[in-house]
Amino acid sequence: MGYCGTDGQAITTQATRDGGIDGFIQQDALGLQNIYIQVKRYAKSNSVGSRTIQSFSGALQERSAGNSNSGVFITTSSYTQDALISAKRLHIKAIDGEQLAKLIIKYKVGIKTINQFPIYEINKDDF
């Protein structure tokens, strides 16, 4: 998606005791601004609520310590309306399962092409 950081990588935090942050990417090549990420792999029927967004906001504020850093919350499910309102108010980008699937396909992250089908058109100059 164009995020490069100093070494062009994303950093994943430890699995437990991560302080509410699952990882981060650096927005620019100099590593001046971090984008902190929280990911919830939920079943389709289990929506993310506003308390979860607010908890991430607290972790983001603690981690960023006054710097101009951003937060992205990604879920495989969806958000409640209150969660979306909280995310907007707290300047957190909320990405749901449908948006995530579109981004995965658009940027070809974690997927590979297993089959391609050609599309043919009649060349009218030959007839």
Automatic annotation (TrEMBL):
Organism lineage: Bacteria, Bacillati, Bacillota, Bacilli, Lactobacillales
Keywords (A to Z) from UniProt: Endonuclease, Hydrolase, Nuclease
Gene3D superfamilies: 3.40.1350.10
Recorded superkingdom: Bacteria
Organism: Weissella hellenica
Pfam families named among the record's database cross-references: Mrr_cat (PF04471)
UniProt key word Nuclease: yes
Domain Restriction endonuclease type IV Mrr: 9-104
InterPro entries: Restrct_endonuc-II-like, Restrct_endonuc_IV_Mrr, tRNA_endonuc-like_dom_sf, Type_IV_Methyl-Rstrct_Enzyme
Presence of the UniProt keyword Nuclease in the record: yes
Molecular function GO terms recorded: endonuclease activity
Protein name: Restriction endonuclease
